[in-house]
C-alpha cells in the first residue's frame, strides 16, 4: 500500500498541491473578445455607436439607449478607487498565497466600473477616489488579468 493512502485525505500530497488560479470562462464571443484584447496588454471597452456611452461588462446592447452598434475603444487605464475590501480568507486555494489581497471596484475615466484587484498598495494608502493605473498580472503562463495599482503621481497632484 502506498504511504500516501494511509494519510487523512486533506494531508495527502495531492491535496497539498496548490491548484492553478481559475481563469475567466467567457460565455459568448463579445466577452471572449474583451479577454483576448487583455492578452495583448491593452484594456478595451465597448463604446456605443449611437450615444457614445462606454459599457462594461461586455454586452450586446447599450444599457442607456438600447443600440446594438458599438466599437472597441482603448481605455486610458486611469481611474479612481470606487470601493474595496481587504480579503483575509481564500475562497479558492489558489489565492491562499496572495493573502491578504485587496479586491476592488475601480471607476475608469471612461465612466465604467470594473471589479479588479489592487496591487502594490499599503492599506494605509487606501482611500475613496485614490487615483489608480492599469497593469496586467499573469495568473497562468498564457493568461493575464487586468489589475490596478495606486498612481502616486496623480495622487500628489490632487
Ligand atoms: Zn447608447
UniProtKB/TrEMBL annotation:
SUPFAM superfamilies registered for this protein in UniProt: Nucleic acid-binding proteins
Start and end residues of each ChsH2 rubredoxin-like zinc ribbon domain: 35-70
Record Pfam families: OB_ChsH2_C, zf-ChsH2
Coiled-coil positions: none
Disordered, as annotated region: 1-26
Ranges where the ChsH2 C-terminal OB-fold domain occurs: 72-137
Matches recorded under InterPro entries: ChsH2_C, ChsH2_Znr, NA-bd_OB-fold, Thioester_dehydratase-like
Entry superkingdom: Bacteria
Protein name: Zn-ribbon domain-containing OB-fold protein
Amino acid at each position: 500500500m502506498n504511504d500516501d493512502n494511509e494519510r487523512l485525505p486533506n494531508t495527502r500530497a495531492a491535496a497539498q498541491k496548490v491548484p492553478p488560479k481559475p481563469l475567466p470562462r467567457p460565455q459568448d464571443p463579445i466577452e471572449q473578445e474583451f479577454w483576448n484584447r487583455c492578452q495583448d496588454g491593452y484594456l478595451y471597452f465597448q463604446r456605443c455607436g449611437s450615444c457614445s456611452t462606454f459599457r462594461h461588462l461586455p454586452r450586446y446592447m447599450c444599457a442607456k439607449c438600447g443600440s446594438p452598434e458599438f466599437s472597441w475603444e482603448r481605455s486610458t487605464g486611469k481611474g479612481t478607487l470606487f470601493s474595496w475590501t481587504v480579503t483575509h480568507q481564500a475562497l479558492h486555494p489558489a489565492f491562499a498565497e496572495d493573502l491578504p489581497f485587496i479586491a476592488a471596484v475601480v471607476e475608469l475615466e471612461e465612466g465604467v466600473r470594473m471589479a479588479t484587484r489592487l496591487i502594490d498598495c499599503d492599506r494605509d494608502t487606501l482611500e475613496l477616489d485614490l487615483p489608480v493605473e492599469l497593469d496586467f498580472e499573469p495568473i497562468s503562463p498564457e493568461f493575464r488579468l487586468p489589475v490596478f495599482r495606486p498612481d502616486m503621481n496623480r495622487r500628489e497632484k490632487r
